[in-house]
Amino acid sequence: MHLNIKKVTNKLGNLFFIEGGRDIPFEIKRIYYITDVPGGEVRGHHAHKSLQQILIAIKGKIIITLDNGKKEKKVLLDSPEKALYIPGGVWRTMQWLDSDSILLVLASDYYDENDYIRDYEIFRKMVDEGFWNGSFI
Ligand code: TYD
After folding, report:
1. CB–CB of 14/44 below 8 Å?
2. Residue 47 domain-assigned?
3. CA-nearest residue, atom 18 of ligand 1
4. What is the whole-number distance in angstroms between the Cα of residue 67 and the centre of ligand 1?
5. Mutate to test the pocket of ligand 1, among 28, 32, 52 (most ligand atoms within 8 A of CB)
6. Has residue 42 been placed in a domain?
7. Does 135 reside within a domain?
8. How many domains does the chain have?
């Protein structure tokens, strides 16, 4: 799901803002950002059980590949105006096209390694067993 970020522009630049619970479907409990990934490299390779996230390439270009265990979708984040919502149950990778790209992530919960699924076979098994309802993507 794409969300458009509110923007205030004047001759001194652009200001973007996002309000938890208003613009996005959760209250924000954590913010993190990823920088200095060598161009072409791929991060991610995991799913979350229940964490919801919003991904924004506030600078540069990053390709996000989403996989719900049944189908795959690629989304190019190439503007600070674009936000991508990802609920639980979605395997993702993020490929940095330029190393000076910056990925900002807004998350619905604190960091918890127990919410991660880092083994693709286990992810597929959980999809098949109906761990998540619905099929985002
Ligand atoms: P990870 O989410 O696996 O990053 P990516 O999918 O981009 O490769 O996190 C990388 C490491 O950082 C991992 O050891 C967990 C740790 N980490 C935290 O300690 N706190 C956090 O908020 C996040 C997102 C990761």
Report:
1. no
2. yes
3. 111
4. 19
5. 32
6. yes
7. no
8. 1
Q: What CA–CA distances, in Å, run from 112 to 21, 25, 62, 123?
A: 21, 20, 25, 17
Quick: pLDDT tens for 26-40.
999 999 999 999 999
> Which domain range does residue 22 map to?
2-128
Determine, yes or no, domain membership for 136. no
**pLDDT per residue over 57-93, tens digit each?**
999 999 999 999 999 999 999 999 999 999 999 999 9
Q: From residue 7, how far is each of 13, 30, 45, 52, 80 by CA, in Å?
A: 10, 22, 32, 23, 10
What is the atom index within ligand 1 of the atom nearest the CA of 92?
6
The CATH number of residue 55's host domain is 2.60.120.10
Site to substitute for ligand 1 among 43, 48, 66, 91, most atoms within 8 A of C-beta = 43
Q: Are 104 and 55 in contact (CB under 8 A)?
A: yes
pTM above 0.90, yes or no: yes
Q: Give the mean pLDDT of 100-123.
A: 98
Tokens of 42: 């791929």
Confidence of residue 12 (pLDDT cuts 50, 70, 90): very high
For residue 46, indicate whether it is catalytic. yes
Give the distance (Å) from ligand 1 centre to CA of residue 62: 17
